[in-house]
Amino acid sequence: MAAVAEVSGEAVAAKTLDTKPTSESEINVQVQELVAMFKKLNPLAKEFFPSSYPNHQNSFYFLNNGQLSPNNFADTNKPSGNDFYPNNRRRRNNYNQGRRRLNGRAFKAQREDSIRRTVYVSDIDQHVTEERLAALFSSCGQVNDCRICGDPHSVLRFAFVEFADDHGARAALELGGTMLGYYPVRVLPSKTAILPVNPTFLPRSEDEREMCARTVYCTNIDKKVSQAEVKNFFETACGGEVTRLRLLGDHVHSTRIAFVEFALVRVG
Fold first, then answer.
1. Which end of the chain is less crowded, N or C, counting CB atoms within 10 A of the terminal residue's CB?
2. 3-class DSSP state for residue 160?
3. Burial 154-172 (b: 16+ CB within 10 A, else e)
4. Alpha carbon 119 to its chain's center
5. By CB neighbour count within 10 A (0-12 exposed, 13-18 middle, 19+ buried), where does 93 fall?
6. For 200-205, which contacts have Cβ atoms below 8 Å and span 24 or more sequence positions?
7. What pTM does this model have?
8. Which residues in 38-74 are b (16+ Cβ under 10 Å) and which e?
9. What is the per-residue pLDDT across 236-256, written as a single tens digit (0 to 9) for each?
């Protein structure tokens, strides 16, 4: 509305100024008409500028106590929130990208530090436990984590041992060739870090730990096999009652998996 008043005021002012006054009285009348016209304008009206025109200059004049004066209101000189919206959005995107880069660099540095503190151990006897393997390397330094991987029924397996510092990892390399069980182990610098365990996946009470001890994980189950057939197989082969069975699969994999929970920890 203020913009309409300003446009119409400029037209009237131009029309008034184009008419040449013939006497002093006519000049006074024209001045009074201009004063009356500007009094109708709202001096507090915010000047509108489109968002595509960020570098604007305020050139409007407002009436101050009945006299013409340049606009001194801070709100009209300050661009509105929408004036620089593309710049603000770009600024926020740059800030978020900067945070992601910082987080990415911090994660990469943390991962590289973890790799330096980890050794890869291979040719591990199938009867060697993680506790026994950690006890062997504890002489080199504080062991933060020890993970034995591979098929538990395989003759040889491999493991990752992470130390509290890289000095322990370098000392652990000297244990290559040590007899552990029936085979000498090989110790090499690791090329990967041990993936941390999500604590929400771990049992949080004694009942959950006892339930995990009664549960086995089974893979490579044919999709044609029903849940009842899987339950009957484990009860017959293991000689124990199956209290719960979850058979899971999807349209991507050709086989399914199952979690089989028994009534007792030791069956068969």
1. N
2. strand
3. eebbbbbbbbeeeebbbeb
4. 29
5. exposed
6. none
7. 0.43
8. beebebebebebeeeeeeeeeeeebbeeeeeeebeee
9. 999 899 999 999 999 888 999
Return d(Cα 137, Cα 168) in angstroms, integer.
Answer: 9
73 with 44: CB under 8 angstroms? yes
- 79-124 residue pLDDT tens: 554 444 555 565 666 656 666 665 778 878 888 999 999 999 999 9
Residue type, 189: P
Which residues contact residue 192 at a Cβ distance below 8 angstroms, ignoring those fewer than 6 apart? 115, 118, 160
- On whether the CB atoms of residues 46 and 74 are closer than 8 A, the answer is no
Please list, in sequence order, all residues whose beta carbon lies within 8 angstroms of the beta carbon of residue 68, skipping any fewer than 6 positions away: 38, 61
Q: Which two tokens stand for residue 57?
A: 């200059």
Tokens of 134: 């950690």
Q: Give the span between the Cα atoms of 43 and 61, in whole angstroms.
A: 9
What's the rounded Cα separation, in Å, for the pair 191 and 153? 25
Can you spell out the DSSP letters for 55-69?
Answer: S-----EEEETTEEE
